Amino acid sequence: MHKPEIAITRERLLAAREMVLNMGPQHPSTHGVLRVILKLDGETVIDLDCDIGYLHRGVEKICENRTYVHIEPYFDRLDYVAAVSNDLCYVETVEKIAGIEVPEKARYIRVILTELQRIASHLLWLGTHAMDIGAVTIFLYAFREREEILKIFENYFGARLTANAFRIGGLQYDIYDGFEEQVRAFCRILPERLKEYETILNENRIWLQRTVGIGILTAEEAKDLGVTGPVLRASGVKWDIRKAFPYEVYDQVEFDIPVGENGDTYDRYLVRMEEMRQSRLIILQCLDKLKKLHPGPVLGKVPKIIRPPVGEVYHSIESPKGELGIYLVSNGTAFPERLRIRPPSLINLQALKKMAIGHLVADVVALIGSIDIVLGEVDR
Amino acid sequence: MEEKKDKPTPKGASATKAPPTLPIVELTDDPILNRLRARFPTAVLEAVEILGMPTLTIAREQIVDVCRFLRDDEEALFDFLTDLTARHIPEAEKPFQVIYHLYSFPRNVRWRLKVNLAEGEACPSVVSVWSAANWMEREAYDLVGVRFEGHPDLRRLLLPEDWEGHPLRKDYPLEFRYNRWCEKHLNMIAFREGTEYSGRFE
Fold first, then answer.
1. Distance in Å, alpha carbon of A240 to nearest chain B alpha carbon
2. How would you label A183-194 residue by residue, b for 16+ Cβ within 10 Å and e otherwise?
3. What does the alpha-carbon distance between residue A26 and residue A4 come to, in Å, rounded to a whole number?
4. pLDDT tens-digit profile of A119-167?
5. Residue range(s) defining the domain that contains residue B42
6. Which chain A residues are closer than 8 Å to B82 by Cβ?
7. B interface test, pick of A51, A68, A223 with most B CB neighbours within 10 Å
8. Would B41 be classed as within a structural domain?
9. Could you tell me the pTM of the whole model?
C-alpha cells in the first residue's frame, strides 16, 4: 500500500499553528489587484506582506517621452476615481515651474470641480468600504449621490470617469448654462443624505463592532510611516495641504479640518464624512464668488509649446487620498527630464502592516477599505 | 506640434541659445543650515534655494547622520519624510542622484536633500530614521537601480522579482526588445524583422 513519507495526520495538522493565506490579487475586497500575503495564527494576523505592481504601466517613464500637454491624460488614469484632483496637481506643477498665470475665474471653477470630485471619491469609498464590512444598503445610497456629481461632470467635461478639461494655464471650457443651479441643487440635498447614511451606520452595532478600535494608528506612528490625508487626520494630526500650503483659492475660503481622536477605522469614517460637509461649504463659497467673475476668460496666456526653464520643482495638493505630489525636473526642452509622482495611496498602504498585525483576517478587509487605496495610483 | 525637439531652426543663432534657467539663490543665512554646518562641517557640499525650496547636496557617507540630526534637532524638527526618489543623469560625473523631500509639521517647512552617487555606489538607507522610506527606497531600487545599504528588505516593489534592468534609467530601451521575463510568463517574443516601434512621441 502506498504510504506518504510524511504522514499528514490529524494530530500533526492540529499541532501546526502558523498558516500562510494568500488574499488577492483577484479579490473584491482588495479594491483592485492588490495581493496580500498573510501569516496567520488561527485567525489572527501575525505578519503581512503586500505584493503590488500588477497595474504598473510605467507612467513616469512615459512622461519623460511626452510633451507637457500630452502628459495630462495619463494623470486621469492614476487615481481613476479622482481624475480631476490628479489633473489639478499636474497642471499646477507645470504652471509653477513655467511661471504661467491662471485667470482667477478658472481657479474658482477648478476648486469647485476638485471639491465635487473629493465628495464623489469619498462617496465611492463609503459605499465600497461599507459593503466590504457587510452593509450593502449604503452602497446603493452612496452611488445615488455620486451619480449626481457624475452628471455634472458629464455636462462639463464630457466624461464621467476620466474627466479632463484642466489645461496648463486654465481650463478648456467655460461653465455651461445651468452649472451653478445644478451644483447648488446637489449641495442642497447633500446634508440630509449624509444624515441618512449616518442614521444607518453611526449607531449600528455591527458597524461599530467592526470599526471601533480596529487598526489604531497613533499620531507618532502615522508621521513616521509617511501617512497623509484622512488617515493622518483621524490619528489627531490637524494637517491639510489646503491650509499648510494653500494653492488655487483655498486661502480665500473658510473651512475647517476635521480631526479624529483615536486613529481607528471608525475615526477615519467620521473624518471623511465631515470632510464631505466641509467640501460642500467650500463649493458654496466659491459659487458665490464665481458669480461676480462670471463673464471672463478661463484660459491664460500660454505658449504653444511649453518649455519650462531648467530647474526643478516639488508641488503637492491634498487629493482625496492624501498628499499627491509631483517632483518635476525640467531640462529646458518640451519634454520633462524626470517626473516623479508621489502617490498617496502607495505610501498610506505601507501602514497596513502596522495596523493589521494582531487583528483578525476579517479586519484586514476593513483596514484595506479604510486606507482608501486605488491601485491605479499605487502601481502607476 | 510640427516643431521637433532639439532640431535646429533655420535661424541658427536662436537654436544654439541655452534655454533659460530658474534662478538659483545661494542659501547662506539659514539658522538650521548653520547648525547643520557646525555639527557636520564636511557634510553639506552645496546649499541653494530653487523656487523657494532650500536644496542641499549632502555627502553620501553622512546622509543618515544628517537626516537623524534634522529629525531630532529641536530647531529643525523634520519629522516627516514626504518623498524619496532617484534620478539617472548619464552625462554627470556621478550619474545617480537620490532626492529626499523633508517636511516639518511644527514649522511647516519643506527641504530638499540630494545625494550624488557614482556608478555602482550604494546609498545609505534612511529607514532607521523614517519608516516611510522603506517602500520609497524599494521603488527607487526597482526603477532606477540604486542600491540602499542597510535597508531591511531590499526587493523590487513594482516589477516582478526576476525582471531584468531598471526602466527609469535613460539607457533603458523604449521600444520592445527581447525580454526573458515576457517570454517566460507572457508567451511574447520579439517583433518581426523590420517592425518599427518607438515609444517616443515625435
1. 11
2. beebbeebeebb
3. 33
4. 999 999 999 988 888 888 888 999 988 999 999 999 998 888 888 889 8
5. 24-157
6. 226, 314, 316, 323, 325, 342
7. A223
8. yes
9. 0.86
